[in-house]
Design brief:
The structure is a single chain. With about 400 residues, the chain is an alpha/beta fold. Helix content is about 35%, strand content about 25%. It folds into two domains: about 55-285, 3-Layer(aba) Sandwich (Rossmann fold), CATH 3.40.50.300; about 290-409, Heat Shock Protein 90. It has helices at about 95-100, 125-130, 145-155, 160-175, 190-205, 220-235, 250-255, 270-275, 280-290, 305-320, 325-345, 380-390, and strands spanning about 55-65, 70-80, 85, 110-115, 115-120, 130-135, 210-215, 240-245, 255-260, 265-270, 290-300, 350-355, 360-370, 395-400, 400-409. The strands form three sheets. The protein has a six-stranded mixed sheet, sandwiched between helices. The protein is elongated, with a radius of gyration of 27 Å. Bound molecules: adenosine-5'-diphosphate and magnesium ion. Magnesium ion (MG) binds near residues 94, 95, 136, 213 and 214. Magnesium ion binds next to helix 1.
């Protein structure tokens, strides 16, 4: 069997008969993949698109430890051939999500389906064989050498003959570039090598999907790229993967979908372009564009004006914003808040945001009431003139009873 294995194909030799997902055109992966419609339904009948087969379906997943909520109502499906990156900058729960999917940590509530079958304690072992996992800390057996680490699963669980398992392991070691290390023990390997062995071990089980839990985060920076290269090749080969990572380059390059997680669930999802270039929701934008912000809330016309101006100056200083910009922001805030907004709306909020990546500065104010652009209706002509001179763009929006006036510098 191992003789059929093409070099350069990182997948296990059993895997050449797969059905690749037909919905991938336009994605970032290699172009030869898009014409590969082997579904029996794809017989040229354009009216009935082939059904997309979902490998994993997560329905209303909820996980908590005692009162500590980690995941709340998480829903998604992973289709065959998809590579989904999960980025999760704030809070914790990355490992918990992957561990809940393969029931290493059974969900508190919710259901997980694997290839249409609901995962239960009873079918769990069989399903785990098809759902490989690569851990942050490699998880190799320290008392077994590299070949033994790779062959133990196929021999014990898949009843592959030892001879065949060894042949297959040697093929896999070739593809992860570690043939020379076959008889070394984990302690004789670098972190990057250990992780490559862990990937080979996972592939030896011919999984239908691989879950990667921050596969490069425990590595020395010099070793990150060797492991990323293997993961990139796997993605190209059509392996279905769910990758939790903080390597944004990797996520951008290999995925067809990216999940941005916050507030205990998928906060925003989209193609790498949607998430990394045109994120729509505030927390995603704030993370992707590294947006820093300064907020000041006002509750009456007698608010502490000096504190607001001092706060802006301090914020600009901390973020090394040029002096001239800092002065302009202070002036804008003074004219808009003091002379126009607070006199009419004594309860309001000022926000200044700055993104070094976008090289942009923005000052916005929000206030509740009827829809009104206070600059248009202002009677203080001098203030209006100063504001219009300083701001390149002024935009008024009204959502759910709240006015938001955004000034771009
Ligand atoms: N078995 C457990 N029992 C109780 N709390 C846990 C357990 N596993 C993880 N946690 C808690 O759940 C949170 C998320 O953990 P984890 O998913 O490992 O975070 P991450 O992988 O994002 O660093 C942490 O606060 C952790 O302390
Ligand atoms: Mg973790």
């Amino acid at each position: 069997m191992s003789g059929q294995h093409r070099s350069g194909d990182l997948r296990s030799p059993h895997r050449n008969d797969d059905l690749r997902s037909p919905h991938r055109s336009g994605d970032l992966r290699s172009p030869h993949r898009n014409d590969d419609l082997r579904s029996p339904h794809s017989n040229g009948d354009l009216r009935s698109p082939p059904p997309v087969m979902s490998i994993i379906s997560v329905n209303n997943l909820h996980k908590q430890y005692d009162k500590n909520i980690i995941l709340k109502d998480v829903n998604f499906s992973v289709n065959k051939g998809e590579v989904i990156s999960i980025i999760w900058p704030s809070g914790a729960g990355k490992s918990t999500l992957l561990r809940a999917i393969n029931f290493l940590e059974p969900p508190t509530s919710g259901e997980i389906f694997f290839e249409g079958i609901k995962i239960t304690q009873k079918n769990l072992n069989l399903i785990r064989q098809k759902m490989g996992m690569v851990f942050q800390n490699f998880g190799l057996f320290s008392h077994l050498n590299v070949i033994e680490n790779i062959t133990v699963g196929p021999v014990k669980l898949l009843k592959t003959s030892p001879k065949e398992a060894i042949e297959q392991a040697n093929e896999l070691l070739k593809t992860v570039g570690l043939s020379e290390r076959a008889y070394h023990y984990p302690k004789q390997l670098s972190g990057g090598q250990k992780q490559r062995v862990a990937i080979a071990r996972c592939l030896a089980m011919s999984p239908d999907v691989i879950l990667f839990d921050e596969p490069t985060s425990a590595l020395d920076p010099t070793m990150v790229s060797e492991v990323m290269a293997i993961i990139r090749n796997l993605a190209k080969s059509g392996m279905t993967m769910l990758v939790v990572t903080h390597e944004m380059d990797l996520a951008r390059d290999i995925s067809n979908r990216v999940f941005y997680i916050d507030d205990y669930a998928i906060y925003e999802e989209g193609t790498p372009k949607d998430i990394f270039i045109y994120p729509k929701k505030p927390k995603t934008q704030s993370f992707i564009f590294n947006i820093q912000s300064f907020n000041f809330e006002v509750f009456s016309t007698l608010f502490d004006y000096a504190k607001m101006i001092g706060g802006i100056e301090n914020f600009c200083f901390r973020h090394a914003i040029p002096k001239k910009t800092s002065i302009n922001l202070q002036l804008l805030a003074e004219e808009l808040m003091m002379n126009i907004l607070v006199v009419k709306y004594p309860e309001c909020k000022l926000t200044i945001t700055y993104s070094e990546k976008l090289d942009s500065y923005q000052l916005s104010v929000s206030y509740y009431g009827e829809p009104e652009n206070v600059i248009d209706n202002a009677t203080d002509d001098l203030s209006v003139m100063i504001i219009k001179n300083l701001a390149k763009e002024i935009k008024h929006q009204y959502v759910d009873g709240k006015n938001v006036l955004t000034l771009k510098l």
